[in-house]
Design brief:
- This is Tetraspanin-7.
- This protein has a single domain, classed as Cd81 Antigen, Extracellular Domain, Chain: A.
- Helix 1 runs antiparallel to helix 7.
- The chain is an all-alpha fold and 160 residues long.
- It is 72% helix and 0% strand.
Amino acid sequence: YAMLLSLIFLIVLVAAVVGFVFRHEIKTNFESNLNLALENYNVTADRHSEAVDTIQRTLQCCGVQNYSDWERTEYFSQKGIPQSCCKNQDDCLEKDLKDPNKAKLKVFVDGCFFLVTLTMESKMSIVAGISFGIACFQLIGIILACCLSRYITNNQYEMV
């Protein structure tokens, strides 16, 4: 049991170190995937499009760097900026969303990449604290399992 807990502890430790070391690559990869999701937005109405809409509504942002990122997409030429960027859903008309100057007044202008990374970094201390707490319980479990094993081994020799 102690060996199993030790293995799990090492896997979690390695995952944390790799995540910390490669955090910049993770950000770059996220940004490129977000750009790709914008380019392919609503082409097949897939889960990537739904994820973009959810991020934009939840964080009140639009595009990757800002709302003008949508101007380079196929979706913009057909329908303009998506409804998920609108500050007020009732006030967003499709003709306004096709005109970048009018859309600037009706959509969120901040980009989602900065807000997503800011949100992740602000929650990182909570995740680190919870992970540290779990690691402490794992170490206590490893120590207690070793003590139990030693106790069982010592008692068997005394009984003979």
